[in-house]
Amino acid sequence: MGSTPDEGSSVDGEEQLNDELDGFLSAIRTKLKKFACGFSSLSPTTSPPESADFSGRTALNSSTTKLRTVKVMLAEEDSDVYNFDYPKRGLALIVNNENFSASKDFSNRLGSDYDAKSLTDTFSRLGFEVMLENNLTSKRMALLFPLVSKNYDHSNADCFVCVVLTHGDQAWLEREYCKTKERYDLLFGVDGNPIATKAVVEAFNDENCPNLKGKPRMFFFQACRGSKLDDGTDIRIVRDQYTYNGTSVLSSTASSTVSVDGAGQLESTHGMGETDSKLETFRDVENDQSDAPPWSVMRNIPVSPAPLYKDCLVMYATPPGFLSWRRETGSWFIQSLCGVLDSSKMRSGNMSLSKALTRVSEIVGKEYESFCLGDLEMHRKKEIPVLYSMLVKDVFLKRKVLDQPQNMFFNNQTTSLK
């Protein structure tokens, strides 16, 4: 018997989806291939485009690459700092899921385009080749990370960075044999379906990406990890009163209790310092939003947690089980991260990455607070990023001078970056 109309429609739909995924994979391979066309990324086995006439420059670059490789191998034997003397800084892969109109369970992530723009500018200034992919479905996300792992020239790179901006949640898996539950993190595609955070990290471990062996891999996730709210913690500020030029000044005798929740109250004692970051307090912007799904999305999904591997760093916007926060001008976590990485100390190589990320947590925890007068349950809430690290050496992201500006590619789904 012939196929019913419904069956035929289903087959046609699957074929169309497969064609779309094949086109997506082809486009990603093309972008990754173009990254290797510049002088800065030519390796001894890489051939320049036939239309180019720089054979002498290619030979010189090939010899330089070999000398740098030997130098790196010698330097790595006895050093407490990761060696960044490879020809390229590496790839900064950014996934920005903002438009969730195709999913009935999620709202659009207003302000995420600001995060994408800030991240692109920040990592470009640090010498990274930036690849920004916008509004990916879960299937495209699942295909993207292994493809980048295998097709980018990580052998000539110092390190690798991945940032995912999307809705997130947690799931629980029951273990019947030991009567326990295990918690897992989820990252959602714009179609409303999830992938495991574990899949992102695992794609770049030593087994799946051997060209990154011994090199730092850094992952940053701007997404909710549950639906809990953080009320913050009270701290005590002690001040004395003394006289300066005939004027009474408070220093540390008068004792008062001030809540960290009151970011505006702490502006005078917790300023920008030397990070050069440009931050907003809760009084500047109304209607903060979270990256959590509605309760109807909670379901049993067999996924795994994100593991940590040697030379791997993972930083989340929020602790396990908690909401993360975002404004129409960007998320608290990503805007703070970009502000610190753009600081003069960071770009000059005078601040280690570990110290910089500690500063990011301090800024988010002390200087941000939700402002949602329309929903008092969400009003005056806090957030604190969480850092998991198995880096075995320090990282210094001193600005790298490339032979020519790095390429930047955007997919056809790019939204306007304001």
Automatic annotation (TrEMBL):
Domain Caspase family p20: residue ranges: 88-228
Gene Ontology molecular function: any one: cysteine-type endopeptidase activity
Protein name: Caspase-3-like isoform X1
Pfam family, one: Peptidase_C14
Domain Caspase family p10: 302-399
SUPFAM superfamilies: Caspase-like
Family membership noted in the UniProt record: Belongs to the peptidase C14A family.
Signal sequence coordinates: none
One GO-annotated biological process of the protein: proteolysis
Organism: Biomphalaria glabrata (Bloodfluke planorb)
